[in-house]
Amino acid sequence: MSEKACPTCRIITKENVCPKCKSSSLSDDFGGLVIVFDPEGSAIAKAMDIKEKGRYALKVR
Description:
Helices cover 8% and strands 23% of the residues.
């Protein structure tokens, strides 16, 4: 099963529905990977407006 990224919230998942925003329009065409462990203390998470731990795509096509 391949990984997909949600174009809405950019979370990466193996599911067919986004576990975060429940969107079903996931894309397997994404680039970059950011793993956020501490969203409150991370400058990258703040810049990407990420509020929860997880794996996120930098760009979703």
